[in-house]
Amino acid sequence: MEFHHVSVLLNECIENLNIKPDGVYVDCTMGGAGHSKEIVKRLSDKGLFIGFDQDKNAIATAKERLSEYSDRVRFVHSNFENIKKNEDAAAYKEYFCKADRVVSISDKCVQVLQNNYPDMKNKFMFLPNLTSSIVLSNTAKADIDEVFSKDDFNIVSVGRLTEAKGFDMAIDALKILKDHKVPVHWWIIGDGELRKCLEKQAKDNSVEEYLTFLGFKANPYPYMNKADLIVQTSRWEGKSVVLDEAKILGKPILATDYATVKDQVENGKEGVIVEMDAESIAREIEHLVEDESVLNGIRNYLMARNYGNQSEIVKYYKLFDQ
Fold first, then answer.
1. Which of 43, 75, 180, 246 has a CA between 20 and 30 Å from the CA of residue 18?
2. Which residue has the higher pLDDT, 215 or 87?
3. How far apart are CA 246 and CA 252, in angstroms?
4. CA 89 to CA 83: how far, in whole Å?
């Protein structure tokens, strides 16, 4: 399946980075290589690009998209936090020394880098993904063909169908909910290498009637806007754009307790964080269905706040002007 990834502020970032042909560039969350390709194509044969990602599907896609530049690209299938376990962290120090700044969209990732390279910790900085609450809210008003029944508790999940996203746990959780006669319908937006496996798992668990694979949607926001709950069953994440978007739309969140989730979800206020297994996911969903006051409290908390951060673009411009 095709890997789908939208690069944010692509032109602005590339223009202001002022790529040096012989420079060294490290992307600690490479994703679909949108920014990476624009950097790499501007490098000479003396330049070097190093791309990190935990998602093997993302690595495979990046390798394909950057294949013509293989002489100046290195791929690392790992979280940078594991660098000392898998190889010599000093190997990258010389590259970081040459950088003016190293930017991550996750506070947790910045901490990891600072812990690995304490003598240059001031080089590492956090800049958030930019999300416009105005644009997002307007886009979420678009019409869709699918009907979300008011008799069901509608769950929406968005993500690539890969091991990292943990949709196998979602399907097992749905089986538990079905056995408990909880009236839920689960909508999954996204494509990926595991789609056929997940569809077979749903069939084997006899939950096909309660689960809809929507595939890739260029505009997932109308679906998210109709959800009673946004569920993220990830095994690992860097910084989840979906969670930021759910908060802007005022949608309660249920997320598994992966390493960086507490950077984005205030447990009990913006959503609930559960153990990373199907039983815990199902148990909390059932609780939320039965006790609507918890969901209402989360909704009220979210709607009372403005989660859009379009004004943060000023920080990007300040970085580029340094």
1. 75
2. 215
3. 7
4. 6
For 261-286, the pLDDT digits (tens) are 998 999 999 999 999 999 999 999 99
Q: Is the dihedral of CA 259, 192, 308, 29 positive or negative?
A: positive
CB hemisphere CA count around 43 (13 angstroms): 23
d(CA 243, CA 170): 17
49: Cβ contacts below 8 Å, ≥ 6 apart? 24, 25, 26, 27, 36, 39, 40, 43, 66, 69, 72, 73, 74
Query: What's the DSSP call for residue 267?
Result: B
Tokens of 141: 């008003």
| Residue that the structure tokens 């560039």 belong to | 25
Closest alpha carbon to 309 in 261, 245, 252: 245
Which residue spans within the chain are E strands per DSSP? Answer: 24-27, 48-53, 73-77, 102-104, 124-126, 153-158, 184-189, 211-215, 229-232, 253-256, 271-274
Higher pLDDT, 250 or 136: 250
For residues 236, 108, 105, 126, the Cα torsion angle rounded to the nearest 10 degrees is 180
Q: What is the mean pLDDT of residues 160-170?
A: 92
Taking only the tens place, the pLDDT of each residue in 79-95 is 666 665 555 667 678 77
Distance CA 225, CA 208 (A): 23
Beta partners for residue 27, in sequence order: 51
Whole-number Cα distances in Å, 199 to 147, 191, 210, 285: 21, 12, 12, 22
Name the pLDDT band for 8 (thresholds 50, 70, 90). very low
Task: Put residue 238 in one of left, alpha, beta given phi > 0 → left and psi -120 to 50 → alpha.
Answer: alpha
Rounded Cα–Cα distance for residues 292 and 287 (Å): 9
Report how far Cα 202 is from the mean position of its chain's Cα atoms. Answer: 24
Q: Is 270 helix (H, G, I), strand (E, B) or coil?
A: coil
Residues 281, 170 contacting (CB under 8 angstroms): yes
